[in-house]
Amino acid sequence: MKVPNFVIDEVMAEISHNSFRCYLAIMRKTTGSKKESSHITTDELMNLTSIKNKRTVYSSIKELESHSLITKVKTNTQYGNIYIITGNWKSKGISK
User: Fold this and answer.
1) Which of 39, 64, 90, 95 has a 20 to 30 A CA-CA distance from 78?
2) Could you tell me the residue range of the domain that residue 13 belongs to?
3) Are the beta carbons of 80 and 42 closer than 8 angstroms?
4) For 7-54, how does the pLDDT look when each residue is reduced to its tens digit (9 = 90+)?
5) d(CA 69, CA 91)
6) Residue 95 lies in a domain
7) Domains identified in the chain, total number
8) Full DSSP string of 2-64
9) Of 64 and 88, which is predicted with more confidence?
10) Secondary structure class of 67 (helix, strand, coil)
């Protein structure tokens, strides 16, 4: 997966270390797999990012949502929530 320059240049400076790791994991499972969205479980995010605490993943996802970097669609399935890379970074001063 090729990471766009703006992700390193601008997004990384705006969010926490753990949120950045979650963002890259979600990017890999969505745009990196040529999909617009992907079902991802919390355990899968923990494995992909080496984050050991579910609460840390939850707070990282909330941070990404607050910066309008992702959209999370809650589901009640074993496949996890649906995550979408929104591309709406301009709303929080992050430019593409």
Assistant:
1) 64
2) 5-90
3) yes
4) 888 889 999 999 999 999 999 999 888 999 999 999 999 999 999 999
5) 9
6) no
7) 1
8) PPPHHIIIIIHHHS-HHHHHHHHHHHHHTGGGT-SEEEE-HHHHHHHHT---HHHHHHHHHHH
9) 64
10) coil
